[in-house]
Amino acid sequence: MRLVVDANVIISxxxxxxxxxxxxxxxxxxxxxxxxxxxxxxxxxNLIAEKSGMEPRRVQQFVDLLFQYIExxxxxxxxxxxxxxxxxxxxxxxxxxxxxxxxLANDAHIWSDDSDFEEQDTVEAYSTSDVIDSFDKR
Length: 138
What we know:
This protein has one domain: Rossmann fold. It contains 8 helices and 5 strands. Strands 3-2-1-4-5 form a 5-stranded parallel beta sheet. Helix 1 (7-15) packs across helix 2 (19-26), helix 4 (45-52) packs across helix 5 and helix 6 (82-89) packs across helix 7. The radius of gyration is 15 Å and the shape is globular. It is α/β, with parallel strands linked by helices.
């Protein structure tokens, strides 16, 4: 199974030593995320440092570590799917269009705790608890 991971899941893994972090580094499925997520997380490094209690340098080390387990997908690899993704979820949340497009291009599902993904039926979405349940059954 391939999963496109959204920014909030990755930030959650950075902020706390949690099941989310454990899942990212131990899951069998391929984990993917659009390029903009990697860039966006860099914009939140100070907030992540504040919430996690880590020094900014340490946060960057954790970002680098987590992205060893998550493939960053350039926009040009899923740009042809953006129109269809926009039709599927653009009216609900335009910020989620690129996740759906990335999932479509890579024959993947989405891992997100954002309930907006439940409003579309183009790609299957899993919450963190769904991923935990799926992982525990393997």
